[in-house]
Amino acid sequence: MVVAVALIEPQYPINVGHIARLMKNFGLKSLYFVRPNFDKTEAAKYSTHGNDVLVAAKTVTLRQLRKKFDVLIGTTAIQAISRLNILRESISAERLAKIMHDSSTKDFCILLGRESSGLNNEELEICNLVVTIDTKTNYRTMNVAHALAILLYEISKLKSKLPVKKSKKRVDLASQKDIDLLLQYVSKLADAGNYDLHKKPLLEAALKKLLAKSVPTTKDVMLLMSLLRKSLLAIERGYGKSKH
């Protein structure tokens, strides 16, 4: 399992430096920047022994991150109030750690938003999961480096407490390619069934979150695709008969 960190439009060298140092503390090596706008030389002053993480960091696009990682984890301080706000439906840091532990063959990337405004809805939409740190107060907005420290601590805490059991039987977890194909079938079936067009993005976002939380195997996804494929064919045949 690889756990990486990506910063969206980072501006402040002190935060970037502290994040590189934190990653070094918890043994993470992969740091990515999306549209960075900070002084790297200044950031190095705050990275201490994590300067190698900062030096090795790469600038990428969100699309490249989506292709590279099985699970993208968005972070937000703004929780969903309405049940229909799927994009900001979040889980706790503890729940995230458990999901990651159960999906130890997958690669994860934690997306940290802008220091001023966090992640926007378009960025949250591409994430498989969204996590919120509950501060038990009405003021939940945290410094990005502080938020990452809590997330990495929870992940490392569970990892140290739960030994990984060696299984004699290999379990193939569904790849991002498998899940993308399943989402395509869901979209086609929704169109064939005259599903409300404005609800389709919510349907796809809900399914992505459900799949990320449930850790499906390749067999699970193939069985679901088989059902969707046959349902789609049945609808198409029924539609053809109704024309005659």
Brief synopsis:
Helices cover 51% and strands 10% of the residues. By secondary structure, the chain is of the alpha/beta class.
In words, what does this structure look like?
The structure is a single chain. It is built from 10 helices and 6 strands, in the order E-H-E-H-H-E-H-E-H-E-H-E-H-H-H-H. It is an alpha/beta fold. Strands 3-2-1-5-4-6 form a 6-stranded parallel β-sheet, sandwiched between helices. The protein is elongated. Residues 162-168 have low confidence and may be disordered.
Backbone shape: elongated
CATH architecture of the largest domain: 3-Layer(aba) Sandwich
Count of discrete domains: 2
Instruction: Name the CATH homologous superfamily of the largest domain.
Output: SPOUT methyltransferase, trefoil knot domain
CATH class of the largest domain: Alpha Beta
What is the share of helical residues?
Answer: 40-55%
Order of helices and strands: EHEHHEHEHEHEHHHH
Structural class: alpha/beta
Flag low-confidence runs.
162-168
List the helices and strands and how they pair.
Layout: E1 3-8, H1 13-25, E2 31-34, H2 40-47, H3 51-56, E3 58-59, H4 62-68, E4 71-75, H5 93-102, E5 108-112, H6 121-125, E6 129-131, H7 144-161, H8 176-192, H9 200-214, H10 218-242
Parallel strand pairs: 1-2, 1-5, 2-3, 4-5, 4-6
Helix pairs in contact: 1-2, 1-7, 5-7, 8-9, 8-10
